[in-house]
Design brief:
mainly alpha; Arc Repressor Mutant, subunit A; two-stranded antiparallel ribbon; 7 helices; 49% helix
Length: 149
């Protein structure tokens, strides 16, 4: 499973909104400026977040976006499910893949278990946890991991 830029930026957008005055809508331009991300690119991400009812859009001169609920009510899994095309760790666990493909893969149970662990972790962490730094962090054994196997 690879989290795309859309998913990572969606998290940044929601964290940015959570850090602002929640009584006033926040313009997409101000988020783009703070996050150093193209406003045009953010528009596509915000439309997905809006469709998933994770943000509220307010129109007008003083319009913008607000969170639709408290930061503690957003799980990272909810955010990624709204923005990612697939959250499957391997193709045979993705929706729309023929059942016989999954059945013939002897290791599919292993991959499904790993996917479940990842989903459980993402479900256990909220925006509030990230803002407060209270989520589970990497162990020391990963301090020198550079992706080389």
């Amino acid at each position: 499973m690879r989290i795309s830029t859309k998913g990572r930026y969606a998290l940044r957008i929601l964290l940015d909104l959570a850090q602002q005055d929640t009584k006033k809508p926040v313009s997409l331009q101000s988020i783009a400026d703070r996050q150093h991300i193209s406003e045009k690119y953010l528009e596509g991400i915000v439309s997905r977040l809006s469709a998933a009812q994770l943000v509220r859009s307010i129109r007008g001169k003083y319009g913008g976006y607000t969170l639709s609920r408290a930061p503690s009510d957003y799980t990272i899994l909810d955010i990624l499910l709204a923005t990612e095309d697939s959250m499957a760790i391997i193709a045979s666990l993705d929706e729309g893949v023929a059942t016989e493909t999954a059945v013939t893969d002897i290791a599919v149970g292993f991959w499904a278990g790993l996917q479940n662990y990842i989903h459980d972790y993402l479900q256990s962490v909220t925006l509030e946890d990230i803002l407060q730094g209270t989520y589970a962090k990497l162990d020391d054994k990963y301090d020198h991991y550079y992706g080389l196997i």
